[in-house]
Amino acid sequence: MNDTAVEPFPTAASPNSNAYPEPLTVTNVDTAIEADPTAAPDADDGYATDTSSSRVSTSISSSVRDYTFENNRRYHKFREGAYNFPNDEPEQDREDMKHAMVVNLCNGRLHFAPLENPQKILDIGTGTGIWAIDMGDEFPGAGVLGIDLSPIQPIWIPPNVSFMIDDAEANWTHKPGSFDYIHIRHMTSSIKDWPKLMSQAYTTLKPGGWIELQELRFIIMCDDGTLTEDDPVSGFIKNVRKGLAAVGVDLLAMEKNSTNLQAAGFVNVNEKIFKVPLGTWPRDPKMKTIGLYNQYIIEDGLQGIAMGPFTRGLQWAPEAVELYLMGVRKGLRNSRVHSYYPFHAVIGQKPLS
Ligand SMILES: C[S@@+](CC[C@H](N)C(=O)[O-])C[C@H]1O[C@@H](n2cnc3c(N)ncnc32)[C@H](O)[C@@H]1O
Predict the structure, then answer these.
(1) N or C end of the chain, less CB within 10 A?
(2) What is the CATH number of domain 22-28+47-349?
(3) How many Å lie between the centroid of ligand 1 and the Cα of residue 222?
(4) Residue 61, C-beta contacts closer than 8 angstroms, at least 6 positions apart
(5) Is pLDDT larger for residue 21 or for residue 118?
(6) What distance in Å separates the CA atoms of residue 169 and residue 179, rounded to the nearest whole number?
(7) Which atom of ligand 1 has the smallest separation from the CA of 189?
(8) Ligand 1 in contact with 112 (CB < 6 A)?
(9) Ligand 1 center to 143 CA (angstroms)
C-alpha cells in the first residue's frame, strides 16, 4: 500500500554525525487506511499460537528464578509486583507475536536509529529476548545485552547475545559511556519514572550513541466514524489505563518520549508514527495481516492484560473481570469498526561533546 508505506528514517552520514535533517516527522497518520468492503463483519479467522517453547535460565540464582502465581497466571518474583502482566508461556507467545507484528509494520526493520558497526547494544525489558536475538544476527560483530525482571529468555542464543536479570528502574551499574545503542520497546506499561530511565540511558551511552523507543499508544482511533462512544474495546483500553494509573503506571507516558529525550540532553530527536489496524478490516493485504495479528494479540491475551490492572488497580473481583471480558471479545471480532491505534518510534542521539 503505497500511500501508507513506511518511509525509512534518513540515514546519518555516520553514527557520530549530528546532521539529522528532519525535525519531528509523522509517518502515514495523515492517510486513512482503506477498508475492505468484503471483510466479514464478525471476522474469526483461525490462528494457532505456538506453545512449544520451553525457556529456562542457567546463569542466575534460584531466588530470581522463582515465580509467583495470581488468578491462575504466573508473574515474576524478582522485584515482585513491579510489572503487572504475566510471564507464563501464553504471554510469551503473545509478546513474540507482537514482535512479528511490529517488524512487519516497520517493513522488516528492527531499528530506525542510523547504526553503523555498533559494538555494544542494550535492550531494556527484553522479554523473551526475541528482538535482542534478531539484532545479534543483524550485527554479529556487536555484543547485545538484554535485561529483564523475568528469566524467560531461551538458552540457545547467538554467541554475541546475553541476558541478565535486572531492574531497569534501579540505579544502573553499566559503565558510563559504554554502549552504542539502547533499545526500549513496549515498556510503557512497565516504567514509572521515564525521566530517570532516560537520564541513566544518556549516561550509559557513548558520545554519538543512539537511543530508540518504540511504543504503542493505547488510544483506539478511527478515521471514518465507524467507532462509537460505547465501543467495548475502547472502554476496555480506558479501564486498563485507569487500572495501571492506580498502581503508578501512566500508559500514555510514551506521548512525552520526544520531549523527555530532549530534556535528558539527547539531540537529533526524531519521531515516526504508524497506524496499527485492529482487526481484518483493511483492504491492503499487509495491513490486513497486521490487523489480524493485532486482534489476536489482544484477544488471546485479554485475560493476561486485564487481570493485573483490573484486580490490583481497580480492585475488581477476578470473576467480574472474566464476565466483563466476554463483551470485549465480541467487540474485537466486529469488523464493521475500522479502528486502529498508533505506534510511535522515537530516536535520539547523545551529543558528541
Ligand atoms: C511488554 S514486555 C516487552 C518485551 C520486549 N521489550 C519486546 O518488545 O519484545 C515488557 C517486559 O519488560 C519487563 N520489565 C517490566 N518492568 C521492568 C523493569 N523495571 N526492569 C526490567 N524489565 C522490566 C517485563 O518483565 C517484560 O518482559
Answers:
(1) C
(2) 3.40.50.150
(3) 29
(4) none
(5) 118
(6) 18
(7) 1
(8) no
(9) 20
